[in-house]
């Protein structure tokens, strides 16, 4: 078990589409580390590329919110369908200190595999639907900064440049 370094805005792995998982045997250590890292940073979701690993895998836990769901691991996931529209003020562990209003679907139909490779297809709504969409974006190389207007983004230009710069000075 270990808390891993969270990859920050500006790192190329955050812009890549992640490779499908085909070997489920080696995942438990990585998944435990991802949960440790997510809890340490007080996140509710984490994608594998946020700890520098090129695999289509996310961990989620919104249990400390009013929606009492269990922690989830979603592997090789795809959003099959989506309905409705909602706006939530979102943050991202890879973009510290910035929150942006992001428009998302209210409800999604999502296909994924669990840690054993079992296949599921379920509908999610509420906060869980939003976290799934946020992490799915990550696994496709997309960030919340891509989902706001250039004008809005410009308000955070200095902060974003600082995060990119910190990648080279650590
Ligand atoms: Zn994020």
Number of strands: 7
In terms of structural class, how would the helical and strand content be classed? Answer: alpha+beta
End-to-end span in angstroms?
23 Å
Mean pLDDT: 95
Number of structural units classed as domains: 1
> What would CATH call the homologous superfamily?
Peptide deformylase
Query: Which of globular, elongated, flat, extended, rod-shaped describes the shape?
Result: globular
| SS strand fraction | 25-35%
Query: Percent helix among the residues?
Result: 25-40%
Multimeric organization: single chain
* Poorly predicted runs: none
CATH level-3 fold name: Peptide Deformylase
CATH architecture: Alpha-Beta Complex
Main sheet specs: 5 strands, antiparallel
| String of helices and strands | HEEEEEEEHHH
Spatial ordering of strands, largest sheet: 1-2-3-6-7
How is the secondary structure organized here?
Elements: H1 27-40, E1 45-47, E2 57-60, E3 72-83, E4 86-90, E5 100-104, E6 107-113, E7 119-125, H2 126-139, H3 150-154, H4 157-169
Antiparallel strand pairs: 1-2, 2-3, 3-6, 4-5, 6-7
Task: Provide an overview of this structure.
This protein is of the alpha+beta class and 170 residues long. It has a single domain (12-169), classed as Peptide deformylase (Peptide Deformylase), CATH 3.90.45.10. Helices cover 27% and strands 25% of the residues. β6 and β7 (119-125) form a beta hairpin. It is globular, with a radius of gyration of 15 Å. Residues 92-94, 134, 138 line the site of zinc ion (ZN). Zinc ion is lined by residues 92-94, 134, 138.
């Amino acid at each position: 078990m270990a808390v891993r370094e969270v990859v920050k805005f500006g790192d190329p792995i955050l812009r890549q589409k992640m490779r499908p998982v085909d070997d489920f045997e080696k995942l438990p250590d990585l998944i435990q580390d991802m949960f440790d890292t997510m809890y340490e940073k007080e996140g509710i979701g984490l994608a594998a590329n946020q700890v520098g690993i090129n695999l289509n895998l996310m961990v989620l836990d919104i249990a400390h919110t009013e929606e009492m769901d269990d922690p989830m691991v979603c592997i090789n996931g795809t959003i099959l369908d989506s309905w409705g529209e909602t706006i939530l003020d979102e943050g991202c562990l890879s973009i510290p200190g910035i929150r942006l209003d992001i428009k998302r679907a209210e409800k999604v139909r999502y296909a994924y595999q669990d840690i054993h490779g079992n296949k599921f297809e379920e509908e999610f709504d509420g906060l869980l639907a939003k976290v799934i969409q946020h992490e799915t974006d990550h696994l496709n190389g997309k960030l919340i900064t891509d989902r706001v207007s250039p004008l809005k983004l410009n308000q955070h230009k200095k902060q974003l440049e600082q995060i990119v710069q910190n990648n080279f000075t650590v």
